[in-house]
Design a protein that fits this description.
By secondary structure, the protein is mostly helical. It has three domains: 19-117, Alpha-helical ferredoxin (Fumarate Reductase Iron-sulfur Protein, Chain B, domain 2), CATH 1.10.1060.10; 135-171 and 198-321, Glutathione S-transferase Yfyf (Class Pi), Chain A, domain 2, CATH 1.20.1050.140; 336-492, Rossmann fold (3-Layer(aba) Sandwich), CATH 3.40.50. It has 24 helices and eight strands. The strands form two sheets. It has a four-stranded parallel β-sheet with strand order 2-1-3-4, with helices on both faces. A four-stranded parallel β-sheet has the order 6-5-7-8, sandwiched between helices. Strand 7 (421-424), helix 22 (427-444) and strand 8 (452-454) form a beta-alpha-beta unit. Helix 21 (401-416) crosses helix 22 (427-444). The chain is globular. The structure holds iron/sulfur cluster (SF4) (2 copies). One iron/sulfur cluster is lined by residues 42-48, 63-64, 67, 97-98, 100, 102, 104.
């Protein structure tokens, strides 16, 4: 049963409602959070509601109503143990749609910062934040992780220098107002970044999930990019980005400061950064974007000064999909393919943070992207756009029902198109589709059996890496449909052997 049918909140009779008194102190407290003041510009048009998945899949959540409660200063209704704020999936659709640049999702995150100030967290969020604050990662390493990495020829994970992280988590001195009090000017429309000639050396920001949980993905990234002429420079001492869902919800200033420290690691090497996870891309790109504001950059540099660092605002961030498109190009990818995936129907999952907020990410048209379709086409496969392509994986939503129902609808749409696998470009989305799909099968008694695959692993396979060396054996839903292309390899080998023998 969905939240829509399960959790209908009782409505009080109109006569019993007390008159609303605007709580200005609540509004002032929110305005002190980074971008927390933006709700003041809401004129209640409702444009943020139409594409909001949390509204579609739950009766309790409506971003317009949340903005209205903010305008009234109804903190008592928003800042509660079972706050509706945690139903937001962080998909950024409202950010795209709002004509007033209110950025409802950012206001919601600032409200979560206020929840955190009061010590109110969902248990999962509390656990992940604690892991980050003690290890510098949200997915820590250890002997078992190192053993897995060794299997792919990867070195052990080094500890994060916590002596550089912990000073950044301490608050600023009292009395510093939010530097974003003024209404921001509308940014330019998104256009793909231009191809920059001769820039083939990049700092690699690995994040937490891929190195610790999916070393096969990391190995595929290193192999394929090296094949395509990219020099990968490892970032010594990098921490979690930090994650744009949990840690950003605790404290945006600490989140920005730790992210800026990661950018300084690349800045010191004079390099731009590439990422392999849409969440890392979101954090680092947004940090780069927000720190164009000199006042905010000054505040963040005040914290970085505690560890002898300074961010100058110049480090650019590229998701690996953008690196492939803009620095390598579809033709070069096509030429690198040794095993064309002809006839393979591949559904595409963009997720949210690769594309949105589009004014920050500047990757592709968020309403009609094609970068992943073209990357799949370059491998000889047939990309498939399904009717629920714009839905997100639901990872940020702290509810059982909302993400489960979203995933069910999304997989149903993929199945209808008869796609053999689902290609994605983010390890968080991958987890949702691999582990989450098993839960969907159990709850709905409907097994779509659509394996998910990270694009760089598909690219590695097309470039000739054997199936058994990709790390796909660790997935719940195996990508057995790829085996038939290995059979073709054998047949090609046999026939060339036969003809060689015949000519000898
Ligand atoms: S981020 Fe997505 S789920 Fe959250 S309020 Fe905006 S549209 Fe709704
Ligand atoms: S779209 Fe913007 S202005 Fe309209 S209700 Fe939502 S937050 Fe308010």
């Amino acid at each position: 049963m969905s939240e829509k049918t399960a959790e209908k909140a009782p409505t009080a009779p109109a006569a019993e409602k007390a008159p609303v008194r605007v709580d200005f102190e609540f509004r002032r407290e929110l305005a002190r959070k980074v971008e927390g003041n933006l709700a003041s510009f809401c004129y209640q048009c409702g444009a943020c509601v139409g594409d909001c998945p949390a509204t579609t899949y739950s009766d309790r959540f409506n971003p317009r109503e949340i903005m209205l409660e903010v305008l009234y200063g109804l903190g008592d209704e928003l800042l509660t143990e079972d706050s509706v704020l945690w139903l937001c999936t962080n998909c950024y659709n409202c950010h795209e749609r709002c004509p007033q640049e209110v950025k409802p999702v950012e206001v919601i995150i600032s409200l979560k910062n206020m929840l955190a100030d009061r010590g109110i967290y969902p248990e999962t969020v509390k656990r992940i934040i604690h892991t980050f604050e003690t290890t510098g990662r949200t997915t820590p390493g250890g002997p078992a992780v190192d053993k897995q990495r060794e299997r792919f020829g990867l070195p052990p994970l080094k500890p994060v220098p916590m002596e550089e992280i912990q000073p950044l988590l301490k608050p600023d001195a009292e009395g510093i107002e939010s530097p974003t009090e003024a209404r921001p000017a509308a940014g330019p429309k998104p256009t793909p970044a231009p191809v920059r000639e001769g820039k083939k050396r990049f700092a690699f920001f690995p994040g937490c999930l891929i190195p610790a949980r999916h070393p096969g993905m990391e190995a595929a990234i290193r192999t394929t990019l090296t094949n395509l002429g990219i020099e990968i420079v490892d970032l010594e001492g990098a921490s979690c980005c930090p994650d744009p869902i949990y840690f950003k919800s605790k404290d945006k200033m600490s989140w920005l400061s730790v992210a800026a420290r990661n950018l300084t690691l690349a800045q010191e090497q004079g390099l731009d950064v590439f990422t392999n996870c849409s969440g890392c891309t979101a954090t680092l790109s947004e940090t780069h974007h927000l720190l164009e504001d000199e006042t905010l950059r000054g505040r963040v540099n005040g914290r970085l000064q505690r560890i002898g660092r300074h961010y100058d605002g110049t480090t650019q961030v590229k998701h690996v999909a953008v690196l492939l498109r803009d620095e390598i190009g579809y033709d070069a990818i096509r030429k690198s393919v040794k095993r064309p995936l002809t006839g393979l129907k591949v559904a595409i999952h963009y997720g949210c943070h690769l594309l949105k907020p589009s004014r920050v990410m500047q990757v592709d048209d968020p309403n009609n992207p094609d970068v992943l379709e073209k990357l799949v086409e370059a491998l000889g496969a047939t990309p498939v756009r399904h009717s629920n392509w714009y839905l997100c994986c639901g990872k940020a939503c702290q509810s059982e029902d909302v993400p489960m129902n979203m995933m069910h609808d999304l997989l149903g749409a993929v199945h209808k198109e008869e796609a053999e696998l689902l290609c994605l470009i983010c390890p968080t989305c991958f987890g949702q589709f691999d582990y989450g799909q098993a839960k969907v099968a159990k709850r709905f008694e409907e097994d779509f059996h659509t394996p998910a695959i990270y694009y760089l692993q598909l690219l590695a396979f097309a470039q000739g890496v054997p199936y058994d060396e990709l790390g796909l054996d660790r997935q719940r839903f195996k990508v057995e449909c790829l085996r038939r292309f290995e059979t073709s390899d054998e047949e090609a080998g046999e026939s060339s052997g036969e003809s060689a023998g015949a000519s000898a």
